[in-house]
Amino acid sequence: MFPDLGPLIWHSFGTMVVLLQEIMSVYPTLSPPTLSASVSNRACNVLALLQSVASHPETRDPFLKAEITEYLYPLLNTTIDTRSFEYLRLTTLGVFGALVKVDDTEVVNSLLKSDIIHLCLRIMETGSELSKTVATFIVQKIIIDEAGLQHICGTPERFFGIASVLASMVAEQPQPSTRLLKHIIRCYLRLTDDPRARTALQTNLPEALRDGTFDNCLGDDAVARLYLQQLLDNLAEPAGEAPPPVPGPAAAGVTHLGSAPVAGGAPHPGPGPVAGASPRGSSQAGPSCAHQGPAPAAGGAPHPSPGPAAGASPGGSSQAGPSRAHPGSASTAGGAPHPGPGPAAGASPGGSSQAGPSHAHPGSAPAAGGAPHPGPGPVAGGSSGGSSQAGPSRRRR
């Protein structure tokens, strides 16, 4: 055949349209089956031209993208065993055989979207020996591709559909042709590359392939005998098991990193700033004595609020329970209130305070009946940028 016939047909004006019209003119003769030998022969000549287009590397991809194969499936979807129908099916299979002859994943993916596997399996069951050989070759080339193997082994129905047809082909003839038997063995061998299919074939492989029934048939074909031996070796090995899944953190009892769950309760959140926290932090505290302004004397007017209260911070926030008045500026009974102190003990310009229950600070308490003592500066424990935590304290002696 002319080597560049495919590109000439594809690129010549109107040629592909005329060829497709010839194919569609056969449809009315398929059902009811009235296909004559002359019409079948004419359609087969058109199919031979399409095969040249499908087999050429320059026109193979455009042929697939144009979905020309969709016009050919009705020609395969027949079961009449007359000579004209058988010849038409065989020539149509030749077009698909030309497509898959070259290993190409795009071709396989395109065919997997169609009904070609189902049609080939039916021909493998009911067709002539030559049609069975071509159909088995097409299935073989599809499953040799990784995408085709995953498609076939993806569901039990697809796998056992192919396995049962292959087994029936082995059993129906005691001595099939060497070429057909070679394609059957090659299909079985490729299926053993999938662990699930290998496990199934260990109990479903036809006994005729194990007991040497076809030794005479394969005597002259070293490649076929090598395929059969490799198949038996693969089935003799145990099928690999999938590794167990790796448990996640929840399965191991880990709930939150850096926190332990309270007995019977929800996991504790991560701790906030600890004692001596940095400026502009926040404090969490139980019942504490908020550093307020000076308490009013008994029966006296309340003292005006001072500047930044003890424990207040420009950038922080405090949380406190019940609080008591700060004694650092308390006045004597009946005396005038003491002016507001400066930053009290434990106060920080930018920090925050955490405190439990505390008592009066003795550092600035006035003598009984005497003049009030001037407010102290920052006392021991006060920090310019930190925070103080204190439990219950006693008067300094």
Could you list some keywords that capture this structure?
397 residues; mainly alpha; Leucine-rich Repeat Variant; 14 helices; 1% strand; globular; disordered C terminus
In short:
InterPro entries: ARM-like, ARM-type_fold, CNOT9. One of its GO terms (cellular component) is CCR4-NOT complex. Helix content is 41%, strand content 1%.
Task: Give the SSE map.
Layout: H1 5-11, H2 15-24, H3 37-55, H4 60-65, H5 73-76, H6 83-100, H7 105-112, H8 116-126, H9 129-144, H10 146-152, H11 156-172, H12 178-191, H13 195-204, H14 222-236, E1 354-355, E2 389-390
Parallel strand pairs: 1-2
Helix pairs in contact: 1-3, 2-3, 3-6, 6-9, 7-10, 8-9, 8-11, 9-12, 11-12, 12-14
Per DSSP E runs of 2 or more residues, the count of β-strands stands at 2
CATH topology of the domain at 103-238: Leucine-rich Repeat Variant
What spatial order of strands do you see in the largest sheet? Answer: 1-2
Order of helices and strands: HHHHHHHHHHHHHHEE
Q: What would you note in describing this structure?
A:
The protein is mainly α and 397 residues long. It contains 14 helices and 2 strands, in the order ααααααααααααααββ. The N and C termini lie far apart (118 Å). The C terminus is likely disordered.
